[in-house]
Amino acid sequence: MPIWIVIGLCAAVLVLIAAVATAFGFVRGGLDKPASSAPTKMLPDPATAEDIDNIRFSLGFRGYRMDEVDAVIDRLRDQIAAQQQQLAQRPTEPRSGQEHDPGAGGTSSADQP
């Protein structure tokens, strides 16, 4: 029997053994919690634009830790919603230089008799 067939059969048997061992729980796989090489800087409450510039996320297996990014986005969403609600509740006042003139109904003084 040629040697490459023997090597192929041995490799197939090893793969089969590994698959069975994993299926029955003899081999435990998975990734450990990612270790952070830089300290995580999250948002203070309330956040400013400078705080957002200073956010730092820990690196995970495929990039940033999704749970940290989701937490920051959730907080920003809540703060923006609260600010929008506060703005909606404020009474509307004309801006300076844009006072409403009740007599300016689209007619000029030259049009009036």
UniProtKB/TrEMBL annotation:
Name used for this protein in its record: DivIVA domain-containing protein
Species: Saxibacter everestensis
Superkingdom per UniProt: Bacteria
Region (Disordered): 82-113
Record InterPro entries: DivIVA_domain
Lineage, uppermost ranks: Bacteria, Bacillati, Actinomycetota, Actinomycetes, Micrococcales
Ranges of biased composition (kind: Basic and acidic residues): 92-102
NCBIfam families reported in the protein's UniProt record: DivI1A_domain
Gene3D superfamilies: 6.10.250.660
